[in-house]
Amino acid sequence: MPQTPTFPAMFDSSGYNGNLYQSKEDSSEGLYYYENNLLSGSLEALIQHLVPSVDYYPDRTFIFTFLLSSRLFIQPHELMAKVCHLCVQHKRLNELGIDKARIRKNAPKILQLLTEWTETFPYDFRDERMMRNLKELTQRITSSDEVYRKNIQQIIQNLLRKLAALRQYEELLARINAQVTDRLTVLKMKPQSIQRDIITVCNDPYTLAQQLTHIELDRLTYIGPEEFVQAFAQKDPMDNDKSCYGDRRKTRNLEAYVEWFNRLSYLVATEICMPVKKKHRARIIEYFIDVARECFNIGNFNSLMAIISGLNMSPVSRLKKTWAKVKTAKFDILEHQMDPSSNFYNYRTALRGAAQRSLTAHSNREKIVIPFCSLFIKDIYFFNEGCANRLPNGHVNFGKFWELAKQVMEIMTWKQVECPFERDRKILQYLLTAPVFSEDALYLASYESEGPENHTEKDRWKTLRSSLLGRV
Q1: Which one of 61, 84, 99, 440 has the fewest beta carbons within 10 angstroms of its own beta carbon?
Q2: Main-chain dihedrals φ then ψ at residue 369, nearest 5 degrees
């Protein structure tokens, strides 16, 4: 079967990788090229371009880009049905007494396409209609020639293994979420049950940064590339105003990742606002600054930004007496690196440096690149909004989707890195399940730590004490 190149080999910096690109003799019909790069085409022509033949196999750049973007125009199960139809009709797999030599030439390429689809977009196959089409097509191949039965079994087994792993991950998330409780509720009901803080669980900021990196890579691993596109799926004007992809459950792993960022920010703020003594609060702030600095050194920008976000929350930033005891020089440097001005220029420069380091790395530690996810999503959103999906002639704007695929492919490469640090289950359990304050409870804890400074804060403090504690 054709060999599948690794993700980084698929794209170069300027456009399609010319070494991988193979043109069909008849591919110009319905497709528009410029300097050997496919820029646009009708949806039907692009689907036909996806289907291999005896003397043609689409390059992997096209396969990834089209499978990623096509869901904005046609649902995956509908695309799969069309691909199967073309494979069967055009390749004459439905004819009795078909020439086995023809099948032996064509079947490996069809199987390779199915391998690419099931490996890169396995979540598409949670749809029973997708699985049904997959099995029907593979049965047609094996019914004519048993040689490929083993290949087909391997494709399906690998797919089922990925889907089973996803199911286990989702069950784990559900169990973790079931354990998470509001800290104020726990304090009111069982105040003695919350004796620990983050430093008693892990007094080494370097270790905590490493455990945060475990959580980041675990959650990043289960985000399918298609989720970055499905998050912004709109109605296709050529599709009779039907929403072609309205199922928001298709982005649940991406949503879970964003929720983790928010949780970490609130955990940081909770840990700081909770201690009674000013000296202890200052120590926890300095501890998190050290954790954030180590996250930066590792290349874990998502945890870094979540920690900075927690440190900058109003209930924390208003603790002026506490901050007066903090050595803030290291924090000032980190804030400068993550400064949002000039469209996060400093962060983007640091990210490019980490990405470059990753390309030449010899160890998994040096390969780690975990981008600030919310900004990555925002970038894709604005890129999607700024470019039309279709050209005035109705063609799919494939030039747009090539650029989109290049961005998504980068994060897909980064998420494949294995975390090199040893897991500490006790620390991971605390990070994932320790009770955190809501926003109102954070303000109340902040006012209890350092009293209100003006009438507005005093009024809010009274309101919060009344509503959250039942006290006047």
Answers
A1: 99
A2: -140, 115
Give bridge partners of residue 56 from the DSSP assignment.
Answer: 53
Q: What is the pTM of this model?
A: 0.88
What's the CA gap between 300 and 22, in Å, rounded? 38
Give Cα 410 to chain centroid, integer Å.
11
Taking the C-alpha atoms of residue 211 and residue 203, their distance in angstroms, rounded to an integer, is 13
Task: List, as one string, the DSSP characters of 73-87.
Answer: TS-HHHHHHHHHHHH
Q: Which tokens in the block code for residue 31?
A: 């497709």
Q: How far apart are CA 230 and CA 243, in angstroms?
A: 11
CA atoms within 13 A of residue 32's CA, in its CB half-sphere: 13
**Torsion sign over Cα 182, 183, 188, 194:** positive
Q: Give the number of C-alpha atoms closer than 13 A to the C-alpha of residue 414, restricted to the C-beta side.
A: 31
CA 54, chain centre distance (Å): 36
**Which domains are assigned to the chain?**
32-159 (1.20.870.10), 204-233+250-437 (1.10.840.10)
Residues of the chain with pLDDT under 70: 1-29, 90-104, 144-145, 187-195, 233-249, 471-472
Of 367, 281, 356, 354, nearest in space to 322 by CA: 281
